[in-house]
């Protein structure tokens, strides 16, 4: 009987050698020997009853050894075949990793929105609230309350689109100053939510629609020094720590004194380049001490309170910051442009 | 405004370079837009004395020996007909630069550098020049207009640089003057500022003249409209001899681009430039009735102006009349009927103040803008009105072109031209600035600006010159002080005195930004389009005449028709943006815009229109579909913590079967869909486009909704798959709606399969859903979900005749 066991052992070795090229074939082969009912090793167990009782223990032990040996062999075989199969699968899935990626596209906010967010963050951090502006305004708020009476030469500074004798397209966000001061009493610290403003200008460097952001502080003892300090801080945050600021006299009917605020050219650091036309300075915004008449038009005691105001053109700021060379590009929605400005 | 340096120097000693002066002007509030050197292109041209001049046979040329003093003597070939021995002419030496002229010898065609040359075998070492070649006109130098050599006077020093004698060593400042400083719209006005900035004395031009006994008997001036003309001065001048003005005057006029006309007319122009006061001169021969009357024009009254244009006037226009008829459009232009001619022998000079608003209106209404009207629109002051007349009479005397009579009529409303006293607190002046400017500095600055200041304690007393109408209170004084003291003295501070405020964005601003960021996250790019569109854009959307979108606000003065209507929808701008992108080769992409549409209450506007902030999304390309756009709509809803529902809708610009109205809590707030093929075709779209609009203002009440946490149930939920068979007309939305209303435990419903085909009846469709049931505080009873399903199926059967698929 032990010879038959040895025969089975040889049969297994031959089987593995000759037939078992795949995991399925190996499983079939395993079944021939190790299936609990039909397997050849199992069949041998049934032979026990034909074995002399005194030899039974030894024979049983031999069968078990064979069984364990066979199990061991088949599991080794399976491991080997599994590894081979995986290898073939990997090979079959070979790709050209240099082929293009599948696009995961994230959009961008509009450059003007990006600048506006940066500005609002800065001013919100300084304690400014954000007031809303209107695109369609009354002549009174856009001009008269701001100390620009009808037929005042200052109206020539802003070519206005009219909708009716009373209504017009806002030429500046400054109307938000009046609306705010009519509703709130000092201390006031607002930046008008950057609004669309309109002037009848349409050429290479002007767009008939653009964006402004207006700031207003009204409190006791507000001075030009506050204006300079605040705008200098703001300029540094937007254009970098090394930016310096310069005030120079200007004129707006709603501020007195009025100033233009220039920042040192961030492209050349003030040495003079094409961007700053060789001057080292870039005109950034208009500002000033709120004209007493404007405060009085809003019922604010101009002896007790004073204010500062500033207005910044966002489109220009965005163009400067991102190096966009034509204002029209901001409104053409060309994806080749929009995809580039990722400063969200 | 153009200011020649040489002219400015008549009133101030300027001992700094033009570039330094430019900086000075800039820092005290006068931006120099352009600084031009007059003879910039001309160099190396000296006075040449022709010593010998021989004709070259068979040509019009001469060969000359020209003495250039220290530069040497040169052989020059010259083709001009006025070259002659003994004459002095400008000689461009070898290496000189001059203007190059065309064959006509008149048209400048760039510049050239003089080289040694040979003409007809004769060496030529330089060139004798004409006025044109040096950029000098007859008005700059007599004889410069001759089409030949520019003859220089005998006394010109041989070999000397010609630029100073021809006025080519000058600089022109083009200065922009802010609207608050009309008093600086003149050479003298700028000179005042320059003198103040440089700490120099201002040398006022002479106003002296001697009146004769000559009179115009019975002459009267009447002002019927003092509200439009608070001051009118007329002065009669007899024995006028019309002729040319002297070189110095012609040259100054030429430097600022004005042609000399005749002495009397030039005087009026000169005074306007010098003092900023428009003047007019009438030929008295043509004035009837021995009178001037300033009145409003009659309705339909006609006047022909100097330039032979006829205008029909009305009572808002001011006219100057003689005893009979209008002779000038006040402050704009004189009448042709009383124009100064060569034969004029008597002149009435006018210097007046007309109100700027009225001149502005008239000038705009008639579309007629002149140097005078431009000046009046900015505002003139009576101080200058009075002085300008004196200056003009002085010039008449200086030029010897008339006898100054004693007929001087000054009609005024009693306004003083004396300085007015103004007292301000020094503390308040410094309070505006935030720094303490030393009293001595304040006094120095205000003295330089001719305010004759004094300080007593805290009180600064000023004598404000009558031309400084802008000076009103202490902030104005602060501005004067700081612009002269220097803005670099302002020390940056950060609101040390101000109260602390909270600040920050409000809920709406935060939500708007959140929504924009969410859409960017979904691959969309934000756009900004003009708020105005073209009527053609509404046609593009195929909107019928009675569509509400057609009720748009019109601009009264649009730039052009394409920018004439305030948007009532964002769709047209978006579709145009998609079309532009496709034309540039961007064949797929996602765009969005958040902007206002403008809904008028009534037209023309009586009140503020409704500015409704609206979201518009436009997507295009092979990968997009109705459902990718719907995904973006759902993204928007999710971002704002709201839920939308959808129903099929028809819009003229959308695909009739791939568009839906968007509802929020039963209210229609927008739409989405595929662009109609008619629209795609008219835009030449190469791929399908899908568009969405949502009225965000309708959702603004929901902007306070915030993220909140619902505790997770301790009990597990259950899901059931339901395959349903229904009529093809039944929509997924209807099925989901019935299911949701049937059971409060439904968490989510997901459609996972749609089938039409042989396994179900021909007119039916099958939809298979996974329905999630979520327990609440307590676990589901064992048969609870089965009961829910049973109820759902019953309701589906009853309401929509839907069966479970067998």
Task: For this entry, give a set of tags.
heterodimer; A: about 350 residues; alpha+beta; BirA Bifunctional Protein, domain 2; 2 domains; two-stranded antiparallel ribbon; about 20% strand; rod-shaped; B: about 800 residues; Phenylalanyl-tRNA Synthetase, Chain B, domain 1; OB fold (Dihydrolipoamide Acetyltransferase, E2P); Phenylalanyl-tRNA Synthetase, Chain B, domain 3; seven-stranded mixed sheet; six-stranded antiparallel sheet; about 25% helix; elongated
Outline the secondary-structure elements.
The complex is a heterodimer of chains A (344) and B (806).
Chain A: H1 2-18, H2 23-34, H3 40-46, H4 53-92, H5 111-125, E1 129-131, E2 136-138, H6 139-142, E3 167-169, H7 175-183, E4 188-198, E5 209-219, H8 224-239, E6 245-252, E7 255-264, E8 281-290, H9 292-297, E9 306-313, H10 314-322, H11 335-338
Parallel strand pairs in A: 1-4
Antiparallel strand pairs in A: 2-3, 4-5, 5-9, 6-7, 7-8, 8-9
Helix pairs in contact in A: 1-4, 2-4, 5-10
Chain B: E1 2-4, H1 5-8, H2 18-27, E2 31-37, E3 43-55, E4 62-67, E5 73-78, E6 88-101, E7 108-113, E8 117-119, E9 122-124, E10 127-128, H3 131-134, H4 163-166, E11 171-176, H5 187-198, E12 220-223, E13 231-238, H6 247-255, H7 263-275, E14 279-283, E15 291-296, E16 302-304, E17 310-312, E18 318-321, E19 326-329, E20 333-334, E21 347-353, H8 356-366, H9 371-378, H10 382-399, E22 403-412, E23 420-425, H11 426-433, H12 439-448, E24 454-456, E25 459-464, H13 474-485, H14 507-521, E26 525-526, E27 532-533, H15 535-540, E28 565-566, H16 571-583, E29 589-599, E30 610-620, H17 626-639, E31 645-648, E32 654-664, E33 667-675, H18 677-682, E34 689-695, E35 718-727, H19 732-742, E36 746-755, E37 764-773, H20 784-800, E38 803-804
Parallel strand pairs in B: 12-15, 26-29
Antiparallel strand pairs in B: 1-11, 2-11, 3-4, 3-6, 4-5, 6-7, 6-10, 8-9, 13-21, 13-22, 14-21, 15-18, 16-17, 18-19, 19-20, 23-25, 24-25, 27-28, 29-30, 30-34, 31-32, 32-33, 33-34, 35-37, 35-38, 36-37
Helix pairs in contact in B: 6-7, 7-10, 8-9, 11-13, 12-13, 14-17, 19-20
């Amino acid at each position: 009987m032990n010879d038959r066991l040895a025969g089975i052992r040889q049969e297994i070795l031959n089987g593995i050698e000759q037939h078992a090229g795949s995991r399925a074939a190996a499983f079939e082969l395993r079944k021939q020997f190790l299936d609990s009912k039909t397997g050849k090793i199992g069949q041998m167990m049934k032979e026990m009853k034909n074995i002399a009782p005194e030899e039974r223990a030894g024979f049983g032990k031999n069968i078990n050894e064979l069984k364990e040996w066979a199990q061991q062999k088949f599991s080794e075989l399976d491991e080997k075949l599994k590894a081979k199969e995986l290898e073939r699968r990997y090979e079959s899935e070979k790709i050209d990793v240099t082929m293009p990626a599948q696009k995961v596209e994230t959009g961008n906010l509009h450059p003007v929105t990006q600048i506006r967010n940066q500005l609002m963050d800065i001013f919100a951090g300084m304690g400014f609230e954000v007031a809303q502006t209107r695109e369609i305004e009354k002549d009174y708020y856009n001009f008269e309350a701001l100390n620009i009476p009808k037929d005042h030469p200052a109206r020539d500074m802003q070519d206005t689109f009219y909708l009716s004798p009373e209504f017009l397209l806002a030429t500046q966000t400054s109307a938000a100053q009046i609306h705010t001061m009519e509703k709130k009493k000092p201390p006031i610290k607002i930046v008008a939510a950057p609004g669309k403003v309109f002037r009848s200008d349409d050429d290479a460097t002007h767009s008939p629609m653009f964006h402004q952001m207006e700031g207003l502080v009204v409190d006791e003892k507000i001075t030009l020094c506050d204006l300079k300090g605040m705008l200098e801080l703001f300029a540094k945050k937007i254009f970098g720590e090394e930016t310096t600021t310069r005030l120079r006299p200007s004129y707006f009917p709603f501020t007195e004194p009025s100033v233009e605020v220039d920042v040192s050219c961030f492209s050349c650091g003030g040495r003079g380049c094409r961007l700053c036309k060789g001057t080292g300075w870039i005109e950034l915004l208009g500002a000033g001490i709120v004209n007493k008449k404007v405060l009085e038009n809003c019922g604010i005691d101009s002896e007790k309170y004073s204010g500062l105001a500033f207005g910044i053109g966002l489109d220009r700021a965005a163009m400067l910051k991102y190096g966009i060379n034509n204002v029209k590009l901001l409104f053409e929605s060309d994806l080749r442009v929009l995809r580039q400005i990722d400063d969200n | 405004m153009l200011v020649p340096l040489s002219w400015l120097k008549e009133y101030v000693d300027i001992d700094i370079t033009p570039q330094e002066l430019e900086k000075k002007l800039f820092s005290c509030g006068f931006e120099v837009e352009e600084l031009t050197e007059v003879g910039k292109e001309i160099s190396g041209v000296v006075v040449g004395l022709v010593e010998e001049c021989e004709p070259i046979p068979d040509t019009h040329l001469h060969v000359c020996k020209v003495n250039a003093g220290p530069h040497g003597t040169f052989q020059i070939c010259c083709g001009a007909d006025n070259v002659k021995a003994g004459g002095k002419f400008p000689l461009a030496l070898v290496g000189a630069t001059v203007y190059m002229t065309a064959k006509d010898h008149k048209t400048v065609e760039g510049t050239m550098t003089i080289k040694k040359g040979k003409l007809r075998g004769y060496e030529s070492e330089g060139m004798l020049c004409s006025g044109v070649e040096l950029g000098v006109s007859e008005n700059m130098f007599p004889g410069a207009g001759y089409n030949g050599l520019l003859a220089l006077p005998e006394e010109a020093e041989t070999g000397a640089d010609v630029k100073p004698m021809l006025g080519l060593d000058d600089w022109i400042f083009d200065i922009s003057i802010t609207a608050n400083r009309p008093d600086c719209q003149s050479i003298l006005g700028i000179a005042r500022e320059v003198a103040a900035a440089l700490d120099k004395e201002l040398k006022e031009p002479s106003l002296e003249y001697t009146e004769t006994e000559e009179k115009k008997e019975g002459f009267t001036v009447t002002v019927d409209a003092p509200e439009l003309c608070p001051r009118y001065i007329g002065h009669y001048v007899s024995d006028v001899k019309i002729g040319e003005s002297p070189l110095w005057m012609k040259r100054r006029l030429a430097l600022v681009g004005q042609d000399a006309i005749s002495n009397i007319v030039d005087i009026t122009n000169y005074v306007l430039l010098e003092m900023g006061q428009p003047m007019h001169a009438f030929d008295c021969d043509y004035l009837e009735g021995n009178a001037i009357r300033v009145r409003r024009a009659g309705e339909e009254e006609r006047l022909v102006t100097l330039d032979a244009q006829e205008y029909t006037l009305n009572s808002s226009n001011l006219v100057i009349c003689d005893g009979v008829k209008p002779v000038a459009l006040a402050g704009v232009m004189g009448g042709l009927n009383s124009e100064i001619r060569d034969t004029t022998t008597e002149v009435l000079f006018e210097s007046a103040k007309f109100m700027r608003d009225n001149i502005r209106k008239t000038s705009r209404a008639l579309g007629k803008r002149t140097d005078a009207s431009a000046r009046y629109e900015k505002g003139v002051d009576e101080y200058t009105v009075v002085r300008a007349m004196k200056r003009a009479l002085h010039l008449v005397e200086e030029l010897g072109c008339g006898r100054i009579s004693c007929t001087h009529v000054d009609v005024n409303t009693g306004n003083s031209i004396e300085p007015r006293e103004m007292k301000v607190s020094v503390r308040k002046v410094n309070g505006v600035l935030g720094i303490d400017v030393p009293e001595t500095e304040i006094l120095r600055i205000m003295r330089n600006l001719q305010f004759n200041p004094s300080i007593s304690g805290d009180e600064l007393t000023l004598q404000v010159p009558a031309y400084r109408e802008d000076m009103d209170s202490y902030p104005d004084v602060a501005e004067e002080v700081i612009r002269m003291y220097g803005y670099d003295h302002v020390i940056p501070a950060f609101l040390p005195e101000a109260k602390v405020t909270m600040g920050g964005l409000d809920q709406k601003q935060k939500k708007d930004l959140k929504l924009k960021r969410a859409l960017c996250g979904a691959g969309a790019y934000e756009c900004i389009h003009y708020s105005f569109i073209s009527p053609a854009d509404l046609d593009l959307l195929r909107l019928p005449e009675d569509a509400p979108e057609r009720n748009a606000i019109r601009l009264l003065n649009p730039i052009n028709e394409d920018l004439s209507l305030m948007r009532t929808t964002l769709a047209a701008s978006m579709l145009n943006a998609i079309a532009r992108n496709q034309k540039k080769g961007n064949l797929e992409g996602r765009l969005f815009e958040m902007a206002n549409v403008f809904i008028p209450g009534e037209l023309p506007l009586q009140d503020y229109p409704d500015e409704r902030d609206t979201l518009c999304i436009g997507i295009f390309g092979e990968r997009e579909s109705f459902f990718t756009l719907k995904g973006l709509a759902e993204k928007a809803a999710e971002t704002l913590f709201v839920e939308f529902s959808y129903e099929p809708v028809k819009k003229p610009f959308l695909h009739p079967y791939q568009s839906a109205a968007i509802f929020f809590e039963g209210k229609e707030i927008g739409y989405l869909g595929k662009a109609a093929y008619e629209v795609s075709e008219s835009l030449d779209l190469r791929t399908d486009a899908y568009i969405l609009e949502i009225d965000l203002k309708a959702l603004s009440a929901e902007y306070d909704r915030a993220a909140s946490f619902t505790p997770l149930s301790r009990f597990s939920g259950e899901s059931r798959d339901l395959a349903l068979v229904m009529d093809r007309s039944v929509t997924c939305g209807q099925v989901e709606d019935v299911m949701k209303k049937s059971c409060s435990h439904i968490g989510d419903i997901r459609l996972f399969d749609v089938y039409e085909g042989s396994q179900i009846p021909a007119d039916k469709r099958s939809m298979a859903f996974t329905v999630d049931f979520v327990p609440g505080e307590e676990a589901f009873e064992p048969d609870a979900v089965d009961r829910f399903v049973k109820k759902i199926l019953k309701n589906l059967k009853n309401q929509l005749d839907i069966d479970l698929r067998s």
